[in-house]
Amino acid sequence: MLSSTLLIAGLGVTEIVLIVVVVLLLFGGKKIPELMRGLGKGIKEFKTAQNGEGDGTAPANKDQDNK
Predict the structure, then answer these.
(1) Which of 17, 20, 29, 38 is the most exposed place for a label (fewest CB within 10 A)?
(2) Is pLDDT of 10 > 90?
(3) Where are the beta strands (DSSP E) in 1-67?
(4) How far apart are CA 60 and CA 49, in angstroms?
(5) Distances in Å between the alpha carbon of 44 and those of 5, 37, 49, 63, 64?
(6) What is the pLDDT of residue 38?
(7) At what angle are helices 31-51 and 13-27 packed, to 10 degrees?
């Protein structure tokens, strides 16, 4: 399944390895988990908003309470 997905995207193993190496060089090993955590939170918020769950003001209120 993975190989067919890669073929559809037009990326081979060499290109993926090159992309991973460049990302590691740019951001370093310690920063990548933070970036992925932020990306995951963003995706979760997007899906929640897309499904219409909640009123969308809870995250903003939470941020204002932390200040």
Answers:
(1) 29
(2) no
(3) none
(4) 13
(5) 23, 11, 9, 16, 20
(6) 93
(7) 110
